[in-house]
Amino acid sequence: MFDFAKVTNWIDALLLSFLPGWAATLVECVLVALAIITLYAVFAIILIYMERKICAFFQCRLGPNRVGKWGSIQVLADVLKMLTKEIIDMKNVDRLLHKMAPFLVIVASMLTFACLPWNKGAEVLDFNIGIFFFLAAGSIGVVGILLAGWSSNNKYALIGAMRSGAQIISYEVSIGLVMLTMIVLTGTMSFSEICQQQADLGWNIFRGHVPAVLAFIIYLIAGNAECNRGPFDMPEAESELTAGYHVEYSGMHFGFYYLAEYLNLFICAGIASTIFLGGWAPFHVPGLDGFNHVMDYIPGAVWMVGKTFFVVFLLMWIRWTFPRLRIDQLLALEWKYLMPMSLVLLVLMAICVSLGLTL
Amino acid sequence: MSNNNYFSGLFSGIKSLLVGLGVTMKEFFTRKITEQYPENRKELKMFDRFRGRLVMPHNENNEHKCIGCGLCQMACPNGSITVTTEMLDTDDGKKKRSLVKYEYDLGCCMFCELCITACPQGAIEFCTDFENAVFDRAKLVQQLNKPGSKVVEKKVAPKPEAPAAKPAPAAKAEAPAAKAAEPVEKKESNPETPTTV
Known about the structure:
The complex is a heterodimer. Chain A is mainly alpha-helical. Chain A contains 15 helices and no strands. Chain A has one domain. By secondary structure, chain B is α+β, with helices and mostly antiparallel strands. In chain B, 31% of the residues lie in helices and 17% in strands. Chain B has five helices and seven strands; from the N terminus they run αββαββαβββαα. In chain B, the strands form three sheets. Chain B has a three-stranded antiparallel sheet with strand order 3-4-6, with no helix packed on it. Chain B has a two-stranded antiparallel sheet with strand order 1-5. In chain B, 17% of the residues are buried. The C terminus of chain B is likely disordered. At the A-B interface, α2 of A face α1 of B.
């Protein structure tokens, strides 16, 4: 596999050759931030287009097809429209919190986005408690949503935010437990080490067999709920709450929520592919050396993005199939089904690992 | 007992969710039903029962079936039909009503089809043309009987009616209408019955 660290080391050496240490670090930080923001915007556009097309196909429609070939620059036009819209100052809102909330959401989303391992040696935020950091950073988003609901001074927004809070905090429990299950298997919380392990030993979903597959399914359900999407879009139930917590937002402030929603979907899928499907690790079949060698030629970033979009497709399939749950059904699903199951899975995985039953 | 419900509910729930996923996945690959209208103008075919605008089918001899009874005019809730008739002397010395002008105002038609239901002859029907927009409201008032047309003579022509006046899609739509007209004509001996409707 190509090690991206060579590139970063070369840039580092180049910058250090004519800059003092602190300036080199500063320049690198700016470069990385630019790269992340660009990727963030590009993926958001791709995801919105993909969502609209896939949604249309599931509903036996064609989807956007007028702007550009197959409607390919429709999203770009939408983004331009969003950028030119006025951000309206509401009269009785809590000014500071109202303006701060979208930034909290987008910051949380970008922090978690930076956790994704793109390639071998191309991790942005990578340290020994990576998964912990991911969960913690992801939880900032819910603060933003709650603040948005509270500061809007609008009953719909508040109800939406409260539902969202209840939902995200509940489903975070099973996400945490499922991740713990996989940590029992991998023995490390660092994303780079998890990927390296899967490149050496095979994908976690195969290594962990039964408990890993079940954990993957639970992760998909809970992850979908974390993104406020699919059958779990209670916070912005448009039929009863108009738009939920972001009803009072306009222009790019609304755009941030929209962007964060799609990127959270991507991040959720990206973490699923990192933890379960091997991240940048190519697909290997033990014994077939020729096949494995060919697979090694496909760059890790392609593997990572490919797997992530596969999981994104699964999540969109779920979203456009099932009707929305009621809030009590939503909480019953988490506390009566998913959480007990993930606890059982944790124990099962611990037994498997301690008895050496993993592959 | 409650335990049993918990697990059976869980598994039946999962099963029904999988059925739903299967349905949408099948839908994902089916041909899409979207009509891309301006591009597919040539091959676009509306469904047969679409009510575009009222027409009076004429056969190849420029004959229609309207006897000028005016039932459609009475049935119309919006008054969008005006039937003008005259009394003519037939060869055997009787007087007979004959259609002069059948005016139809598309602008105030609400496509209820009550006129077609009221017609004892099956002389009018809706065609599937839907491009009805014009720049002047006066153009919406159309005369449905063609100039120089007359009523189809009964008994003389025992149904050779293959109306070729319209292009292919319209002809298909007319075929069932012609069949439906037959029983109505037999009942024609007591033409009072439809008037009570």
